[in-house]
Design goal:
This is Dihydrolipoyl dehydrogenase. This protein has about 475 residues and is α/β, with parallel strands linked by helices. The protein has helices spanning about 15-25, 45-50, 55-70, 90-115, 170-175, 190-200, 220-235, 325-340, 370-375, 390-395, 425-435, 440-445, 455-465, and strands at about 5-10, 30-35, 115-120, 120-125, 130-135, 140-150, 155, 170, 185, 205-210, 240, 245-250, 255-260, 265-270, 270-275, 280, 315, 355, 360-365, 380-385, 400-410, 415-420. The chain has 13 helices and 22 strands.
Amino acid sequence: MSVKFDVVIIGSGPAGYVAAIKASQLGMNTACVEQWLGDGDKLQLGGTCLNVGCIPSKALLDSSQKYADTRDNLDIHGIDVGKPEINVAAMLSRKDKIVSQLTGGIAGLFKHNGVTAIAGTAKVLAGTKVEITDREGAVQIIEAGHIIIAAGSVPVEIPPAPIDDEYIIDSTGALKLSEVPGRLGVIGAGVIGLELGSVWRRLGSEVVMLEALDDFLPMMDEQIARESGKIFKKQGLDIRLGARVTGAEVKDCAVHVTYSNSDGEQTEVFDKLIVAVGRRPRSEGLFEPDSGITLDERGYIYVNDNCETEAPHVYAVGDIVRGPMLAHKGSEEGIMVVERIAGNSAQMNYDCVPSVVYTHPEIAAVGKTEQELKGEGIDCKVGVFPFAASGRALAANDADGMVKMIADAETDRILGCHIVGASAADLVQQVVIAMEFGSSAEDLALTVFGHPTLSEAVHEAALAVDGQAIHIANRKKR
């Protein structure tokens, strides 16, 4: 006799566990299947984000930034602490404790909300059935009224630099380095590469980033990307664009990397090499051919705007479907799907999904870039305000970067906001809320912002859209 649930969710990352909790809150008998096992083969909830992604990387980013500030920036405040030292083992221990606390927190929330957590590898069968294989090989089949696939993603591997988990590592391995490499290579200067490179650069590594693309952060607004590149160069990151890695060989306890650029074949030697060229959906072996589920040409599960697959009552959310691989995007998709299963009219506003690079300063964005709008033939107006003109940023000795606001030239409706600067992730959220309510740049310009705050840079950028900024000289209209 098979077990039956109203909703079965595959994966317990941010998309899966949030959906599971919400489904239970809405009165559904809910199960969440997770294959990740931690110490002692204990079920480990939280997926990539909590275990080896968002959370541990931010813990190391914050620790390394505090170290760098102590080493480089306290003297300007009149504080002399001598030469600080970094205890990498203690830093990693703190990271692990945070991960343990949060993953344990999800287990507590599952228990509180009545979600059944099942350890094993899941496969979707025809007729909304799920086959679960545990670590011993035992198989059980459970029936579901609805299935939500939230299986996440895995790091992309490249043939020229095969992972060996000692000298050539992926993003997971980069979170476990037991000592600061003297010379660190990073393949890929995207979000993951920049964050990991920043951690170890702050701690003293000489970091060389090899990016195959000719443009830096091409998904970002060009002006913000250029400004970010200047800041990272000033911090000592050696970012080489148009550098396509052709090989990596470990010899004499070092990684010998060959790459080609406009000058021909080049060689570099590193103590460690991080491969951070992106992530791909974890879609292999997730379903039987007769389940009705289909994949697109890139391995993503095909879904419509409401995250419905082509199989009845089967949904997919998060990294395994189209769109940006962002934890918050996956969580909100999970909420939307569960609400729709419950019969409520929910939808996802993909125009208001913020993205963040957690370097220092942070880079954050929502909406369209200026080049995207121009490419679409949309007439827009732009306001820019530098943090160098912010009293709060100057007082904090953290005045790199700018806020860029973009609005429709005819309607004044905010179409995008792009920020590089201190607390950019939190500042852009103010604009996300404004855009969600269809606000104009004038709406933000007429809003009272506290003084002195970093938020005033958002206010001034909104004012600058129409040439009305107070604390910078406005460009004269032609």
